[in-house]
Design brief:
single chain; about 50 residues; mainly alpha; 2 helices
Length: about 50
């Protein structure tokens, strides 16, 4: 749920004028970190190779 919330925040921040570039970059970095965490958790739950 948090990932979708970040997407919405980034979309709204990008539409505002003037654009706060620093806040936008911070939100995007947070979204990438969260996406990496989700990917790691998915790999732990369902490894590609049999154990």
């Amino acid at each position: 749920m948090e990932h979708a919330d970040l997407d919405n925040l980034i979309d709204r921040a990008a539409e505002q004028l003037p654009v706060d570039e620093l806040s936008l970059r911070r939100l995007k970095k947070r979204r990438l970190l969260l996406r990496d965490r989700i990917t790691r958790l998915e790999l732990e739950l369902d490894p590609k190779e049999p154990a």
